[in-house]
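Record Binding-protein-dependent transport systems inner membrane component, 343 aa.
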Amino acid sequence: MGRYLLRRLNLFIATSFVLIAVLFITTGYFPTNKAVALTGITAPTPEQLQNIEQTYQLNESQLEQFFAYTKTRLSGDLGLSVTSQRPVIEELTQALPASFELAIVSGLIAVLLGVPLGVLASLSKNKVTQHSIMAITLTGYSIPVFWLGLTLSLWFGVKLGWLPVSGRINLLYEIEPVTGFMLIDTLLWDSVYRFSAFKDALFHIILPSITLAVLPFTVVVRITRAAMLNIMELPYIKAAEARGLHTSTIVLRHALPNALIPVLKNMGLMLGTFATYSMIVEVIFSWPGVGSWLVSGIYQRDYTVIQGGVLGVSLTIIFLSILIEVIHNAYNPLSRKEIYAAN
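=>
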């Protein structure tokens, strides 16, 4: 297992290296001065320009420039935002918690609703129930996320007025950021209005999280159903049934834990698509996360924000994908057997 973890670490380093190389090459094609594209300083003084040339080795070969660029970016220096003139790393770290909060809530909705429906679809003998669940998942998988988000906003936000359609919380509440997660920070807020603020934050996250959860929800239902149908036919399940164990005991203790293994693996494979959908949802609902921040930077031609946003999102996806794969292989004995056999 140690050799496997070392290979995963090497994979993360190699992939990150390739990603930085792509960003470095792309920077040279931005329609602006290279010093501006690298630092975000629109009108550098002679001293600043000399410092930029030394930091990024602009008068040296492309290879030396690449290593200087890599060293600078890995040190956390992503430059200044062209529009706000604030450090990009500061804006990125402020936007990340909102994106993580939305992703976590959406993932919980997808798993908590998708797994039971997948189990029901696999165990139910009623053809109507099976076909209805699969029709719902197929419909959800086919609906464009931008159309769904706009439709939910129109009906539940504008026409019915039940839920807010933009932002994370009402601007009347001045919440001090502690964790960056609004649902937690509202409860930590030292005020008599913290529960009303929590309720308001909860209402704000309902529509964007449901919109974002539809795609992983449909995948979870289908993968859970397929895994349960396969597992329920295995000999150890038949032996448990022969011993007279109740169906619920067999499902919860023996079948479902094994059925969740492919669900975990497929959730890891979906991270890239999930991040893309998240960007669309954040723009639709004006959710102040990395997605809307990055899209705003693209519209404003903020080259340092584009580089920092792409680097931050990509590294996060790569890291989480490898982490989920490691957890999957640690949890699944068959995968560990394949790893050791490969060694």
